[in-house]
Design a protein that fits this description.
The chain is an alpha+beta fold and 193 residues long. It is built from three helices and eleven strands; from the N terminus they run αββαββββββαβββ.
């Protein structure tokens, strides 16, 4: 008796496997402008400096980790009202040019109804995570590799914001990175909340 098993054409099988593999690989890597809230790690060019969002999130001043991020807040800003929250944006920057470049200290967060929020100025001597504008040598980064901010859990310099809880209704939030000289918006990053 001669039994003949059905034979799948090799080309069809190879094509199906190839399509499945390419679809699986299409999800790898990161885009500069993600279409979702998966934005940590996004690189943005602002003037001559490249910025990267390490992480952004609401902070709990009573937790062990987050309590260190709210140190150095001026007395006038140190308390939260019943409808306010602390929000941390942790950034990294690199000068990828051949000449010294200044990072900015001009940032704001804007919600979908146009409210702007500005970072709370932090006392750097009390808060080693605080972002401060610096002049970076070619290929230098901020925060510097030997700092607490670079080696901490977030690996970025902190911009601390006091936001109104209404931002939960007015999402998404956008971080605006402004020029250190002209205050013009040079880049934007969508933020998690």
């Amino acid at each position: 008796m001669n039994l003949r098993l059905p034979v799948r054409p090799l080309r069809t099988t190879a094509l199906v496997c190839g399509v499945a593999l390419s679809l699986g690989l299409a999800g790898c890597g990161r885009a500069n402008h993600p279409s979702s809230a998966e934005n940590d790690g996004v690189y943005e060019q602002a003037g001559n400096v490249t910025y990267q969002l390490e992480v952004s999130r609401q902070l709990n001043q009573y937790s062990t980790e987050d309590s260190q991020y709210v140190k150095g807040v001026p007395a006038a800003d140190s308390t939260l009202g019943p409808s306010a929250l602390w929000y941390g944006v942790f950034l990294w920057a690199k000068n990828q040019t051949n000449s010294p470049q200044r990072t900015t200290d001009s940032f704001d967060i804007v919600d979908t109804v146009g409210h702007h929020y500005y970072p709370i100025p932090l006392n750097r001597s009390l808060n080693p995570f605080a972002w401060t504008a610096e002049t970076l040598a070619p290929n230098a980064i901020e925060p510097a590799p030997s700092t607490i901010a670079a080696n901490g859990a977030t690996q970025g310099g902190l911009l601390l914001f006091k936001l109104n809880e209404s931002v939960y209704s007015d999402r998404p939030l956008t971080l605006e990175i402004r020029s250190p000289t002209t205050n013009k918006v040079e880049a934007t990053i969508s933020l998690d909340l």
